[in-house]
From TrEMBL:
The keyword Membrane applies. It is a multi-pass membrane protein. This is MFS general substrate transporter. One of its GO terms (cellular component) is fungal-type vacuole membrane.
Length: 468
């Protein structure tokens, strides 16, 4: 719950634009550095957890968070208020520091997620879901800290002191995690030990595999396949494509919500003329949208997770390496990815047609939050215990999960820079863009991307019907 500091950047972006005179492409670059910083070493982090355990990653996260947020705070505090042009060297340092903060996020998140799933293998859905729910609440929790202790009506958010608080809080919490988090042997290791000690007979399988609920046949699983073998699988590529499109679009909204709020008036012109109606400050409006994103993200995970476990139970592992479903399988888990894509497309359509003031942005925030939470719960963040483990085995699940995590590394910058340059093209004299033209084209393109993700998800749904 203390690991989501990079997701509160929308709270900081208005102050950074005013104090440091940063342009929209520069703000986008900084937040993108944090968002994509989660992904380049995801497979490496997964491999470290598989070999050494989550405590090591939690220790690294403590060091990364403390240094990134602490130095970011120092960079802001030493910049004078009367500068007329942004400092290129300062911008570059802030970008590097936020990248380090994003890297700390993946170390922290993976350590908690896999500590939970490996310590409670019999309740892996609940353990993983609870961990992800707390992570989803992190921006909400941290935004409350920012509003309650570091924001005043006169000056807005005190970014420097807020980041100092993040450096101390996240550093201490993750250091405590390094002292306490360990894991027993994984189910895969236990199954392998059982298989090694079991004496073969005429009923012993020559190749371990998985049981299909559709036919009952055993299908071999290439758990020892190389990364190249995995990338050659068209189904794995399709899953990466869904992650790239859906996560890329959602994270573009999450990272740029601050300037999306700035682009719109607080109330419509007719409302502002009504006595008693007062405009809401930008900091307050942005904080509200961040909280809506966080709440809808978390609630969707809490609802969709148990629902997916009930209608799409994951395969259990037998001592000989086979997989079977202990409860009736009603629908493929990939169906939830398709439903999330439909919701995302509908969200952008509603935003284009109805959003004209800051108060209307709840449509975008709630829709994006539900889509992100549904995708990560039913598919991409429960992959270690569902799609990836069911299709490609449990032995290298953290490595395979890390590879899929590279998809937003491409998708998030792609859509975020589309937003940034479209907004900059409509901004007067390099200032802050105002009006729906700031994001109109970007959101139409995003709606099209959601429909493409729907088509790819439907393809996987048909191919994996009855298997997960």
């Amino acid at each position: 719950i203390c690991a989501g500091g990079i997701f509160t950047f929308p709270l900081m972006s208005p102050a950074l634009a005013q104090h440091l005179k940063l342009t929209q492409p520069q703000l986008t670059t900084i937040v993108l550095a944090g968002m994509v910083g989660q992904y380049p070493f995801a497979a490496v982090v997964g491999k470290v957890i598989d070999r050494y355990g989550p405590w090591a990653c939690s220790l690294v996260a403590s060091l990364l968070f403390s240094s990134a947020f602490g130095l970011f705070s120092l960079e802001i505090s030493k910049t004078p208020d009367d500068i007329s042009q942004p400092s290129l060297s300062s911008f570059e340092r802030l970008t590097i520091l936020f990248f380090i903060g994003g890297l700390g996020t993946v170390f922290s998140y993976f350590s908690a997620l896999f500590a939970a799933s490996k310590n409670f293998p019999e309740y892996i859905g609940l353990a993983s879901g609870a961990t992800m729910a707390l992570f989803g609440l992190s921006p909400l929790f941290l935004s409350f800290l920012a509003s309650a202790f570091f924001t005043t009506p006169e000056t807005g958010l005190d970014v420097s002191h807020y980041l100092t608080c993040l450096a101390i809080l996240a550093g201490v919490v993750n250091f405590f995690g390094a002292l306490t988090m360990g894991t027993p042997q994984t189910l895969a290791q236990k199954a392998q030990e059982d298989a090694d000690t079991e004496q073969p007979d005429e009923h012993t399988q020559l190749l371990p595999g998985k049981v299909s609920t559709a036919t009952g046949d055993v299908v071999p699983v290439e758990e020892d396949g190389t990364v190249l073998d995995l990338l050659k699988d068209v189904h794995f590529g399709a899953l990466i494509a869904v992650a790239l499109l859906v996560c890329g679009v959602c994270e573009m909204i999450m990272s740029n919500m601050g300037t999306i709020v700035l682009s719109l008036p607080s109330y419509s012109r007719s409302q502002s003329q009504i006595p008693g109606i007062q405009e809401v400050g930008t900091d307050s409006a942005t904080s509200t949208q961040v909280r809506l994103l966080s709440l809808s993200n978390t609630i969707s995970r809490l609802v969709v997770g148990p629902l997916a476990d009930f209608v799409s139970p994951v395969a259990s592992y037998l001592p000989n390496g086979n997989r079977q479903f202990l409860r009736k399988h009603h629908i493929s888990r990939v169906a939830f990815l398709a439903l999330a894509s439909i919701l995302l497309a509908a969200t952008f359509l509603a935003t284009e047609l109805r959003v004209r003031t800051q108060q209307d942005l709840w449509i975008l925030s709630v829709g994006t939050g539900i889509t992100y939470g549904t995708t990560f719960t039913s598919g991409l963040n429960l992959l270690p215990c569902s799609i990836i483990s069911s299709i490609w085995g449990l032995k290298n699940m953290a490595r395979n999960f890390g590879i899929v995590s590279y998809a937003p590394f491409v998708g998030t910058p792609l859509f975020s820079y589309l937003y940034a340059f479209v907004a900059a093209d409509h901004a007067p004299n390099g200032g802050v863009c105002e009006g729906v033209t700031c994001w109109e084209l970007t959101f139409w393109v995003s709606a099209g991307a959601a429909l493409v993700a729907l088509g790819v998800s439907s393809f996987l749904w048909r191919r994996w019907k009855g298997k997960l």
